[in-house]
Amino acid sequence: TLDPDAARGADLLVFDREHLWHPYTSMTDPAPVRLVTGAEGVRLHLDDHGEHLEVVDAMSSWWSAIHGYRVPELDAALADQAGRMAHVMFGGLTHAPAVDLAERLVSITPDPLQHVFLADSGSVSVEVAIKMALQTQRGQGRPERTRLLTLRGGYHGDTFGCMSVCDPVGGMHSMFTEVLAPQVFAERPPAPGGDVEGWAEGVRRLAAEHTDELAGIIVEPRLQGAGGMWVYDDRCLVVLREIADEHGLVLIFDEIATGLGRTGDLFVSSQVTPDILCLGKALTGGYLTLAAVLTTSEVAHAISRSESGVLMHGPTFMGNPLACAVALASLDLLAARGWEQDVRRVSSALSAGLSPLAGAPGVADVRVLGAVGVVHLDHPVDSAKATDAALREGVWIRPFRDLIYTMPPYVTGEEDLARICRAVAAAAEVA
Ligand code: PLP
């Protein structure tokens, strides 16, 4: 039987093309989009001009669908919560899904992180984290400290506060530079085994020069994602912790992409503890939009001493019960399945399948970290060609800039992992 969405496929695509923006697209020169009619396990069901395709999702819907799609445990949690209460305002009210999720997050993150803000997207959580850092300084009698030290190569989201701490050289937000809060940018940290001391010297100098105006430091720990998929040496995080302590800065780790097992640790923050931790993406197993900001009692108390006495943020969909219930079910499943073993298995398969591409014509570098594989080309990717080549191998990828990369669902099986590697290789060859 024809899927009802597929039956309307041509009409849907016509209206989409004329009226619907996709991430980073133009209304007058739209990029091609494909119709998804469903998803199950690690496969997306696509309708390609009436032809039904089932392809492996090598992107986990941008880091989020770690358990794949139509996961019975998550479907059940969602249906159960929908039967009780889909949403309620969080101002003056609370509910079990939010409290239970907060309790779980406090228990699985490092001990000093005790207070939880449930935001509605990754970008909003970064905005909240920045506000927390600024309010902390105000609460400590240093209102002039309003800037963030951040890293070249970083990406933290698309809203204005987030854009201000993204690497401006990446160009994603360069049109807005003039209206963004000026921040302090340190060099991109060295790859594992690189010159950490040399890098640290530069960051120490910057922090010392700008101490009087710095409120905090914000970084994606271990792996910088949308700013270039750069893997860096964990020792840099120790250096940042030392600098933050020395200068009274609030250290923010944005683990929206790296959190919940992706790089091989449940959180990179288990190695070096930040003052603020942002989570998102995989938090609900990719089912619903939800993010969390965790922080310490020290930060929470300083915020209470700022002029307002309260943390100045409160979105309509804060702590959405459906999202919280699914997040709890997703965390249960993560523990029950043994995420460490899954991530190790994915990692070995990506290493085995992608490492041989190192040194191939057009390939500048191959990087594998946890359940992330990156083929860095020495030229910009022809995205349409690369995507088509991967689809011919039965795999969905979304290359950008000079990168072809994959972060498959943790549950992806051996054959599908091999298929992903073949697809990435085919894409790299034509790109
Ligand atoms: N921070 C990091 C490290 C991200 O990778 C992203 C999204 O790609 C964000 C923040 C923004 O999250 P969202 O797209 O949910 O607003």
UniProtKB/TrEMBL annotation:
Question: Which parts of the sequence carry N6-(pyridoxal phosphate)lysine?
Answer: 281
Endpoints of the signal sequence: none
Q: Which cofactor does it need?
A: pyridoxal 5'-phosphate
GO BP annotation list: biotin biosynthetic process
Among the Pfam families in the record, one is: Aminotran_3
Q: Known SUPFAM superfamilies for this protein?
A: PLP-dependent transferases
Q: Quaternary structure? A: Homodimer.
| Protein family (similarity comment) | Belongs to the class-III pyridoxal-phosphate-dependent aminotransferase family. BioA subfamily.
The function of this protein is:
Catalyzes the transfer of the alpha-amino group from S-adenosyl-L-methionine (SAM) to 7-keto-8-aminopelargonic acid (KAPA) to form 7,8-diaminopelargonic acid (DAPA). It is the only aminotransferase known to utilize SAM as an amino donor.
Q: Which HAMAP family match?
A: BioA (MF_00834)
- This chain belongs to the protein called Adenosylmethionine-8-amino-7-oxononanoate aminotransferase
Protein's organism: Nocardioides panzhihuensis
Question: Which gene is this protein's source?
Answer: bioA
